[in-house]
């Protein structure tokens, strides 16, 4: 045991978007355990990169197969157990897939990007969607 060190739990996630009738939508997942709407994200598995983790977690939680875009940033927070978590997010384009409800995520929603800012439960999700908007610019919404 080493005193004075804190383990950091790493993870990955995505701001997953699609175009629907000319409108850019973002994917939101509902987690019944937390009773929240969030971006799909989860913990790093041994041997995988952060980007691989992000793609896997998005697929596991939403059924979406995605194309990886640029890294958007990292959210750091302390979880309910007092552990430090660092989740790295990427922009992603949904290219295929079908959602099947599961124990971790019981529903998904595709919401216009700007409208999504009033539906996310956690501030870190708002920050990542805002980082996405800053990266792509307002022209993507037209």
Describe this structure in words.
The structure is a single chain. The chain has 142 residues and is an alpha+beta fold. It has a single domain (8-136), classed as Nucleoside Triphosphate Pyrophosphohydrolase, CATH 3.90.79. Helices cover 22% and strands 44% of the residues. The chain has helices at 50-62, 113-116, 123-136, and strands at 8-20, 23-31, 36-38, 41-43, 64-78, 84-97, 107-112. Strands 1, 2, 3, 4, 5, 6 and 7 form a seven-stranded mixed sheet that branches.
Task: Please name the defining characteristics of this protein.
142 residues; Nucleoside Triphosphate Pyrophosphohydrolase; 7-stranded mixed beta sheet; 7 strands
CATH H-tier superfamily: Nucleoside Triphosphate Pyrophosphohydrolase
Q: What percent of residues adopt helix (DSSP H or I)?
A: 10-25%
- Percent of residues in β-strands: 35-45%
Number of DSSP strand runs: 7
CATH class: Alpha Beta
Could you say what the CATH architecture is? Alpha-Beta Complex
Order of helices and strands: EEEEHEEEHH
Tell me, rounded to a whole number, the average pLDDT.
Answer: 91
**Gyration radius over CA:** 15 Å
Q: Fill in the CATH topology.
A: Nucleoside Triphosphate Pyrophosphohydrolase
**How many discrete domains?**
1
End-to-end gap = 55 Å
The shape is: globular
SS-based class: alpha+beta
Q: What is the makeup of the main sheet?
A: 7 strands, mixed
Number of helices: 3
Low-confidence stretches: none
Summarize the structure.
Helices cover 22% and strands 44% of the residues.
């Amino acid at each position: 045991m080493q005193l004075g060190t804190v383990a950091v739990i790493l993870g990955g996630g995505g701001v997953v978007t699609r175009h629907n009738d000319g409108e850019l939508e973002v994917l939101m997942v509902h987690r019944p355990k937390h009773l929240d709407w969030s971006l799909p994200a989860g913990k790093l598995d041994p041997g995988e990169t952060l980007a691989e983790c992000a793609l896997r977690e998005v697929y596991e939680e939403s059924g979406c197969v995605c194309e990886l875009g640029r890294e958007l940033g990292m959210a750091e927070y302390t979880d309910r157990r007092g552990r430090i978590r660092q989740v790295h997010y990427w922009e992603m384009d949904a290219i295929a897939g079908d959602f099947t409800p599961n124990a971790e995520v019981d529903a998904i929603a595709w919401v216009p990007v700007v409208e999504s800012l009033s539906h996310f439960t956690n501030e870190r999700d708002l920050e990542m969607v805002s980082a996405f908007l800053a990266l792509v610019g307002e022209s993507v919404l037209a």
